[in-house]
Amino acid sequence: FSDESFLASISSISAIFNAIGRIAWGFLADRIGPLRTLYILSLMFAVIMATYAMSPKLGELAFVIWTFAIFFFEGGNFVLYVPIM
Predict the structure, then answer these.
(1) How far is residue 27's CA from residue 37's CA, in Å, rounded to a whole number?
(2) Residue 82's pLDDT band (boundaries 50, 70, 90)?
(3) pLDDT tens-digit readout, 48-76
């Protein structure tokens, strides 16, 4: 994608998905436990990361969805590793 403002907008909005991910994954961890939640997050995050390279081939919307999902799951990583340690 050659449009720098598009990529800048994506990265800015991604921070919101990171914050939402922290809250959502923390809420889920409170309900079913942090270890079980981490298993779910890791499986879903692995699928997203494994398919991220092909997202630009599917178009800008797919790239945006995958990028937002990555930041959503990344927020969960920060929340879940502390209670497990």
Answers:
(1) 10
(2) confident
(3) 999 999 988 898 899 999 999 999 999 99
Residue showing tokens 């929340």: 79
| Residues in the chain, overall count | 85
What are the residue ranges of helices labelled H in the chain? 4-32, 34-51, 60-84
Cα separation of 19 and 66, whole Å? 16
Token readout for 54 is 């092909």
Residue environment code for 5-38, b if the CB has 16+ CB neighbours within 10 A, otherwise e = eeeeebeeebeebbeebbeebbebbeeeebeebb
Q: Do 66 and 55 meet the contact criterion of CB atoms below 8 Å apart? A: yes
pTM, full prediction: 0.86
Specify the 3-state DSSP secondary structure of 85: coil
Using the 8-state DSSP alphabet, how is residue 54 labeled? G
